[in-house]
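User:
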Amino acid sequence: MYDKENDFEIVPMSKGELARLYAPDLTPHSAVNRLMKWVSLHPQLSAELAANGYRKTSRMLTSLHVGLIVKYLGAP
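Assistant: Predicted structure:
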């Protein structure tokens, strides 16, 4: 899947991979913490992720999860 509006390819990836795209200047651990903080600040995003199988302990994100994050946070 491809998000034409943001010119970003929506593919399955690890939480760490996506987090580093949003915050390449941070350590991988800090980048994941920041991304998850951003997600937690959007209750509807958190709800949609949970409704589609995402769990806090998930390490991998499906293309649907990535697409939802990009929809709410914008492309990295």
